[in-house]
Each structure stands twice: as structure tokens, then as C-alpha cells.
Amino acid sequence: MPSYRFQVTEGTDAPENLITLCETCHKALHNGEFKLSGKKSKTKHATEIGILKSQIRKSGWSFAETFGYETKYRREQVLKLLKTHYFDAVAICCRDDQKVEVEDSVFLKRNVSAGDYQQTKGKRSEKKIPTGKLFGLRKFDIVKTENGIGVVWGKRSSGYFSISDIFGNKISDSVNVKKKCRRLSARSTTLVQMVQMTHSSPTCHFRQAGTVEEGVSC
Asked: Which structural domain, as residue segments, surrounds residue 180?
């Protein structure tokens, strides 16, 4: 993620000085193929979306334009689905006469860093965090323990680790990985968790899949 003002010109890595670019544009920027203006857009989100839509129309891509009222009608009247972002996406993708069946399980994804970049913690960074492998395990490895299956979220030199789901919800705060612990899969930058979806309430409620092997995968 590059900076508006590079560090060599007294730029910082503060959030307000960062901009997101794809890998191709990132390389092109550092190769001097184009320059950043240094000024952030002051337009509202709706305006920016309007600009994107205008550019897509001019791109020559093959696509079909749709509108919110069409999506709402197809979702409510044809597909009989609740109001959620992913059901809106389903309604957009479906033809007018197409019907779909809702699956009981969905997959949630989270991207994590490739390395252990946080070295310390505490108000004054006085506590060192174990990095690399500890007892043969790294952070974000998927493990099966006597307390359940989860992602290694916190490591301790005592061998008692914290395991959670992919979003940091604790499964167990103290698991002895030196006993009855098996690594199911190694750390990856993309974590995937399967959850069961129920429709018992107006808003869809998620719970972790009942079978432990399907609870967290990578």
C-alpha cells in the first residue's frame, strides 16, 4: 500500500497518507510511469460511484446495467429472500424467471498477514510476543485440540495457546498444545470458515458449523 507522499520526501505511513493500489499499478507508480496528485477526492461516496459507473459505461466491457428497484423486486417478489447484501447480489445475478434455493451453509473469508509483524505489546511495548514457530505451530495455523478446532490466535511459551474462529471469537483461551493437539492445516494468508445459516429471525443468524471438521478450514 503506497503513500501519497513517499517517505523519502518526508511522507509517513499514517492511514491518511495511504492509498490502495493493485500490484500492477503499484509497480508502475514506483517505476515512474505515473504520479499521484497528492490530493484526496472530496466527493461523496455516491458521487464516486456515479463516476465509476460512467467510466464502466465508456470502457467497452460487456455488461448489463441494473437498478435498485429491479433488484428489490426480484429479491422480494420472485426469489422470496430476506434483505442482505449477499441476497441482493444473488438477485442481481439471476434472470427474471430464474429461481434459486438457499444453501444452509455459507463460507466466510478473512485475509491475514503472511508474517508475524507485531513484535511487542503493552502500553510501552514492554512485552515481547513469541513469533515464528512455537511448539511446531505458528499463529493462524488450524489446530484440533481437546477443547475444539480453531485458529491459533495467541501463543505462550508455557505451551498454553488461545484458539479462536477466523474473526477472533474465542473458542478456548487456554489450550495445552503439548498434549492431544494436531495441526490440521498450515497458516495461509486466506482463512475460510464454513458456517450454518438459519432463517428463524428477520435477520439471518449465523452459527459455527456443528461438525468440528467443517468449523474452520484453510
From this structure: 110-191
Helix (H, G, I), strand (E, B) or coil at 57: helix
Is 100 a domain residue? no
pLDDT at 205: 33
Number of domains in the chain: 2
**Do 115 and 177 fall into the same domain?**
yes
Query: Distance between CA atoms of 3 and 30, rounded to whole angstroms?
Result: 11
Q: Tell whether 90 is covered by a domain.
A: no
- The pLDDT score that the predictor gives to residue 100 is 82
128 CB burial (10 A radius; 0-12, 13-18, 19+): exposed
Most distant CA pair in the chain, distance: 62
In the sheet with 190-198, reading across from the earlier edge strand, the strands are 105-111, 190-198, 205-208
Query: Can you read off the three cell numbers belonging to residue 98?
Result: 430464474
- CA 71 to chain centroid, in Å, comes to 25
pTM (global) more than 0.90: no
pLDDT value of position 180: 83
Helix ranges restricted to H, 16-58: 23-30, 45-58
pLDDT in tens, 149-185: 889 988 888 889 999 988 888 888 888 998 888 998 8
In a domain, 210, yes or no: no
Judgement on whether residues 116 and 187 belong to the same structural domain of the protein? yes
- Domain boundary among the residues 58, 74, 95 is at 58
SS3 47: helix
Residue 101 placed within a domain: no
